[in-house]
Amino acid sequence: MTYSIEALAEQLAIHPSVVANYEEEWMAQEERNISYDLPPTETFQEFLCRSFAECAFLLEATECNANAMECLEAYDEAYALTEDLIGKD
User: Fold this and answer.
1) Alpha-carbon distances of 20 from 26, 28, 83, rounded to whole Å
2) Which of 8, 16, 42, 49 could pair covalently with 82 via S-S, beta carbons 3.0-4.6 A apart?
3) Domain range enclosing 55
C-alpha cells in the first residue's frame, strides 16, 4: 500500500512534519532489521497504528493506575481508530 505524508497527516488531523518524523523512525527500524538480515516487520501504516496505540496504552496506564484491562482496551481502540482513519487494509 502506498501512502502520502500529506494525506496521512490530513486523515489523522496532525501536522505533516509529525508524520514525517514517524516515517523517519519507521525507516530507521526497517534499516536496523535489514542490517541484521531480518525481514521487514511492518508497513508504515501498521507502524503508525502501533505507535498511536502504544501512546494510548501508556496514557491509560498513568490515568488508571496501570489497570491492565483498561490499558489493553485503550490500545485496541486506538489501533482500530487509527486503522480506520488511514484506511489501512
Assistant:
1) 10, 12, 18
2) 49
3) 5-86
